[in-house]
Design a protein that fits this description.
This protein is of the alpha+beta class and 165 residues long. It is 27% helix and 38% strand. A hairpin with a 5-residue loop joins strand 1 and strand 2. Helix 3 packs across helix 4. The relative contact order is 0.16.
Length: 165
């Protein structure tokens, strides 16, 4: 069993150890962020080889009352990004460069569960396949996310408008 944090995410002990002492807020870094928080996304388990999370349908629907395709995309990109970040390790950041989603079935209620697994994990990129299912285990959406893996030093430069050219 892994370690849990206040967000409820379970991390394997080796991930907690790898990221310990870096002055980073591990639970916040590997969360759904502000957008995901507003949408109710929860990352339940997080490891480079498998990330699992959920999204409530309620509050994330389009005008017909169906789960919004963009909400599925948010869950998929969140889970794939967390996997890519964990694969990359603390010296790199993962930046999504391509996301595609195929929507298979409509959902009106309940909870959607997503599972992200790696299709490719390299030195400069990582691609994750993400499958979203409904409460009955039926596939709702199939997604694929590719992230570029960049040195972590670029993260602070990107946030500083004086470094852009």
């Amino acid at each position: 069993m892994g370690d849990h944090n206040e967000h409820g995410t379970e991390f394997p002990p080796q991930i907690v150890e790898q990221w310990a002492g870096l002055g980073l807020d591990l639970p916040a870094l590997f969360s759904a962020g502000a957008l995901g928080q507003r949408m109710g996304v929860r990352v339940l388990t997080a490891a480079p080889e498998r990330v699992v999370g959920t999204l409530p349908v309620e509050g994330n629907t389009q005008p017909y009352g169906l789960l919004h395709g963009g909400a599925s995309a948010v869950l998929a990109e969140t889970l794939g990004s967390v996997g890519a970040m964990l694969h990359a390790g603390p010296n790199k950041i993962a930046v999504g460069v391509d996301l595609n989603c195929t929507h298979h079935r409509a959902v009106r209620t309940g909870l959607v569960t997503g599972v992200a697994t790696p299709a490719h994990t390299g030195r400069t990129s990582a691609t994750y396949d993400i499958v979203l299912t409904d409460d009955q285990g039926k596939r709702v959406c199939t997604a694929r996310l590719t992230c570029a893996l960049r040195p972590a030093a670029q993260q602070s430069q990107a946030a500083d408008p004086t470094t852009s050219g």
